[in-house]
Design goal:
By secondary structure, this protein is α/β, with parallel strands linked by helices. Helix content is 26%, strand content 32%. It is globular.
């Protein structure tokens, strides 16, 4: 996949992000009582491997029971932030759609909280399944939400220029785990 051209600056490398993930797992573990079963829902693409990392740390470091892992395919923007789907496309694996989530604690994990449209679509979809609670974790909050949505767990908040892009590079989709600031090439 071609990445949009422009100047890239690494803001967080793998070592720093491992500490961020651990902090997110600690925050997330504190949000759930342990009385309800837990499901960690990754927003595909990059939210899914982040969900795996956070769920693993919640179990390994904070003694949480192994959660159910689910993924939702959600698409609104292209990598260059061009709007692809004004209605925010959401697809769910049919085998996961059949699961009864009544009474579950849900942790939704995404890479970047941008305008909030995708997150609102995900939360509305999951709320129909009658969970006990829905919490949201975002690796990066851009501070640009246009809707009354927020992340309960935030790795980092990066207030950047509106035309700039936050790129979360997350294995297996990219080689290195890092957050980059992309300043797109501007027309001359």
């Amino acid at each position: 996949m071609d990445r949009p051209p422009g100047l890239r600056t690494c803001l967080y490398d793998t070592a720093r992000l491992e500490a961020v993930i651990d902090g997110m797992a600690r925050q997330a573990a504190g949000l759930f009582s342990g009385r309800e079963p837990l499901a960690v829902v990754g927003v595909l693409r990059r939210g899914a491997p982040l969900a795996d990392r956070i769920a693993d740390a919640m179990v390994r470091r904070y003694g949480m029971p192994a959660p159910l892992r689910l993924d939702l395919k959600v698409k609104r923007y292209a990598d260059d932030l061009c709007l692809l789907h004004p209605e925010t496309e959401l697809r769910e694996d049919p085998s996961q759609a059949a699961l009864d989530l009544r009474g579950y604690g849900l942790l939704v994990v995404d890479d970047v909280l941008f305008t909030g449209h995708s997150l609102l679509r995900v939360v509305a979809h999951l709320a129909e399944r009658q969970p006990a609670v829905i919490r949201v974790a975002a690796l990066v909050d851009r501070g640009a939400a246009q809707l009354p949505v927020r992340a309960d767990v935030t790795g980092v908040r990066l207030d950047i220029a509106p035309a700039d892009i936050i790129e979360c590079n997350v294995p297996p989709y990219e080689t290195d785990f890092r957050i980059e600031l992309l300043q797109p090439e501007r027309g001359r």
